[in-house]
Design a protein that fits this description.
This protein has 191 residues and is mainly α. It has eleven helices and no strands. Helix 4 packs parallel to helix 8 and helix 7 packs antiparallel against helix 8. 25% of the residues are buried.
Amino acid sequence: IFSMAAGKLKAFLSMHHYNMMGLSNQRILTFFIIIGFIFIILLIKKENADLLVMGNLYVGVLVPILFSFNQYFLIKIDKDAGMVHNNFLREISYARIILSRWLILLLPQLLVAVILTLILKIYITQIHFSFIIYIILLNILFSLINLFFSIITQTGGAANILLLFFVYVQLREDVQNLINSNFFLKKINVF
């Protein structure tokens, strides 16, 4: 579907990357995210349970982290095919190729994240569009951080661990207290 849409929009590089990458990893992640989401919805709807915060953390933290775990794939496919040097000889810059692939992975991720957020909010409470924008921005932020770590470390596992460490540190109560005590850090605090 995304490949056909890219073709209709005359985004031929994106169409080529959709066909080349196949997004099988994205489909597997989406499958497990949806299964987890079903359990979250069932838990939230239990009587005498106030677990809305857990639902918000699921769509705002866990979903973006899981989706961003495959950012190393953008670089790895060239290494596996032995095409790294060929990409630098093309007319299109390698940075543009990676950016195109990143956007290709990001669009389905954002679609799934927004749909899950809408379901959560419609099913449980009212919709706040600022929260949906927040979820979109968190997905983009985590994806960019993981891509950055993937480029720096040249390994997917190290990038994933660094991203998890970044998010874990941010979620700790003592770190949040420290961040909230500083005016500048409080303004840029994503959580």
